[in-house]
Amino acid sequence: MELNETALFINRVEAELRFARGKFPGNTIQMMALSEEVGELAKALIDHRSGKCTAADVYAEAVQVAAMAARVAVDGDSSVPYSPHEGAITYRGRG
Q1: What is the C-alpha to C-alpha distance for residues 35 and 69, in angstroms, rounded to an integer?
Q2: 79 secondary structure, DSSP code
Q3: Span 50-74, pLDDT tens digits
Q4: For 79, phi and psi rounded to 5 degrees?
Q5: pLDDT, mean of residues 27-35
Q6: What is the pTM of this model?
């Protein structure tokens, strides 16, 4: 995969993130929503293998998973005692 494909994916995740925050403001049940999206991605992959959905459908589900993961990381989930701010300032990365 080329870097421009990754950048395009990240741009689409950011657009989905803006949409999701507008449609579902707040940070309740974020982890449950992320889990639901992961399940939908898995189903799309299975359906794609059998010709029931397109590669674009799989890609769209992957964008939604990434957007929900970003919401958990950045917005938190009010049902668990996680501090997004603390996570961001203490994260050391891999490189």
Answers
A1: 9
A2: T
A3: 999 999 999 999 999 999 999 999 9
A4: -85, -5
A5: 96
A6: 0.91
Cα dihedral sign, 62-63-65-70: positive
Cβ atoms 7, 59 nearer than 8 A: no
CB contact at 8 A, 70 and 17 = yes
Residue type, position 20, single letter: A
Checking if the pLDDT of 1 tops 60, the result is no
Q: Report in angstroms the alpha-carbon separations of 10 from 28, 41, 83.
A: 24, 17, 24
What is the C-alpha to C-alpha distance for residues 88 and 24, in angstroms, rounded to an integer? 23
The encoded tokens of residue 39 equal 């399940």
Q: Assign 15 to helix, strand or coil.
A: helix
Percent residues over pLDDT 70 in the chain: 97
One-letter identity of residue 80 = V
Token readout for 86 is 């603390």
